[in-house]
Every structure is written in structure tokens, then in C-alpha cells.
Amino acid sequence: MLVAGGLLIYNAQRRVLAPQEAAPAVRPVSEPSVTAAVPSTPAPTRVIAQPASTTRVALAYLEAPNGRLIVSSVDQPFYRSDFVGIVPAGLLDTISQSKPQFIIRFRGGRFYIEDPGSTNGTLLNGRQIRGMGMQELRDGDVISPAGVINLTFRSVSS
User: Fold this and answer.
1) Counting beta carbons within 10 angstroms of the beta carbon of residue 112, is it exposed (0 to 12), middle (13 to 18) or buried (19 or more)?
2) Which is it for the CA torsion 99, 47, 54, 61, positive or negative?
3) Which of 6, 18, 26, 84 has its CA 20 to 30 A from that of 57?
4) Using CA atoms, how far apart are residues 122 and 141, in angstroms rounded to an integer?
5) Contact, 154 vs 137, CB < 8 A?
């Protein structure tokens, strides 16, 4: 008999003896106790898809003339679709579509911005940062994707 993870497993073998066959002498042997190791912490849960009602917690946000873009992830990419309704329709085509225009990252208690090679670049306080790696962001810095709109970076902790 073995108890493992709340399941009782019983394994018995039966052998039918012929009438002329005598059963061998069997000595009772005490069974060793078997203890199954049960982990003290449950296995991690893996989320396949976020439910539609998931609450996003803002780490920072980008102020636009007519709205806000929320930074809710430690690696938050911004694509053309994120700017619909914020950037005038005629200028939206200048922002990268197939890859991120820029990515805001949170590392070691600080925010950074990176333009990984967008088509028309990204300006940080008027300076081109395309292909220059991570640049530190400070509260009040102005980000201009493709030079078409000014977004003011705001840290929630500021």
C-alpha cells in the first residue's frame, strides 16, 4: 500500500494454487513506511492569456495634448496602434508599425527609453535616440515619436 499526493494506491497479486500445491511458508515482514514528499509551496501558476478585466497598475505615464498613455510593464513597447486617437491621423503613418517606435524600461528603480531602430526615430528632449541604446528618463522629459507629437514622461512615484 502506498499513499502519494492524497491518492491511495493498492497493489495486490493473487495466485490461485492447485489443490496439490502447498503454499510456501511465509514469514510476516513489516512493511517499511513510505512517505511521499509533498512540496510545501504550490507549483507556480502560468498565465496563458490575461482576462479582459485585468486591472493595470501604472508605473508611469506619457501625457499627450489629448490623452495619456499608461506604462504598466517593466518593458513597455509602444507601437503605432498605441497612438491612434492621440496623434493626428495624417501624421500616424510616420510612426513605425511593424516594430516598436520605442520601449520604456524599468531597471534598478529607474526608467529608461530605447528606440530599437524605428523608421523615423524618436526624440528625447529634442535629441535623436534611435539606435543609441537605453537612455535614462526623468520626470518631465519630452518624448517625440517620429517628431510628430510631444509626450511628457511622468513617473507615478514623483
Assistant:
1) middle
2) negative
3) 84
4) 13
5) no
Backbone angles phi, psi at 18, to 5 degrees: -70, 155
The whole-angstrom separation of Cα 138 and Cα 141 is 6
Query: Is the pTM higher than 0.85?
Result: no
If you count them, how many residues does the chain have? 158
Cβ contact 70:151 at 8 Å = no
pLDDT of 94-132, one tens digit each?
776 778 999 999 999 999 999 999 989 999 999 999 999
**Domain ranges (residues) in the chain:** 60-155
The Cα 43–Cα 92 span in angstroms is 45
CA distance 97 to 78: 10
**N- to C-terminal Cα separation, the chain:** 63
Which amino acid does the sequence have at 42? P
**pLDDT above 70: residue 8:** no
Q: DSSP 3-state assignment of 84?
A: strand
Fold of 60-155: Tumour Suppressor Smad4 (2.60.200)
